[in-house]
Amino acid sequence: MIMKKILLLGSTGSIGINTLKVIRNFQGKFKIEALAINSRIDILEPQIEEFHPKYVVVKDEEAANRLKNKIGNKCKILAGKSGLVEIAAQLDYDIFIGAMVGFDGLAPTLEAVKRSKRIALANKETLVVAGELVTKLCKNFNSELIPIDSEHSAIYQCLIGESPESIEKLILTASGGPFRNKDKKLFEAITVEEALNHPNWKMGNKITIDSATLMNKGLEIIEAHWLFGIDSSKIEAVIHPQSIIHSMVQFIDGSVKAQLGLPDMKIPIQYALTYPDRLENNLDRIKFSNIGSLSFSEPDFEKFECLNLAYTAIKEGGTAPCILNAANEVAVDKFLNKKIKFTAIPALINRALEKIENHKSPSLETIYECDLQTRLFVSGLN
Ligand code: MG
Question: From ligand 1's centre to the CA of 241, what distance in Å?
């Protein structure tokens, strides 16, 4: 494998930090050309020391200025959302890693697609809000889209060597989050601390709440729809609390393929970087006799309304998934700041889906407008 140059968006988040761990293990195979973050310059500084990027981008202008004052000209510092787009459009790199949380990852991703780069995508919002546009552009510009999300990496691996016509359905596994066995009557009283306590995966706050509401699975169903071109009626979620099977594909002959592994994001991250090769690593291996048994059950749609809302949004199409995503981001933020109850998250999203007009086959401008309109609307609700 020749050395690959990397642009990493979101290096201070959970996926970003794991990506740097993977890269650290393969000296000489990858070179970090640029790192981009929102604002956590305290985490970024040691990354600059270790990986010597030519550029860093700090979205928060004030944090960018503080960094400039601290490190001088150790590397070039760009600021703001425009800095994210500029770096994706102009830097010399082979692989674009989209690991920024939320909607800001979209514009730089599109720049990378237009330059026919490999897109290793962890930012699910990109496909949720603009899946139609992104997948069309990827085809036009011959840009490889390789998922980092563990479920989608699993499906991607299961589909190697298979023809699209032979797929009967995709089965996404879900841990079920911390409230799988909790009575729905008690959902109102769920605290932020309880919701942040995920049983299997250690992740950022936003995605941990999404896992507790099962919105994460809903977003992943939309993501799978666009990544694999499969109708949402053929995409199922199954609760699998051990998170050992990362997802499955059922074929028209009744055969099912699954991809398994310990719940460690470094595995799908490494795969997205090295595909189609596999490189040896020293990560922990599964010991099946220690796991004992794997269990499965149906998700409870009544309890986890967000999952239903996601199916509704993808069936409606157009800007409905954009509304769903924006409303969810604002609602989760409100919940994290203790302004609304856990049960208000789906309620707010539902109101946004009812209130805001849906536009079919949206352009990027329409998506931005819809995103903004939804955020303003949900910000005013409680
Ligand atoms: Mg996932």
Answer: 13
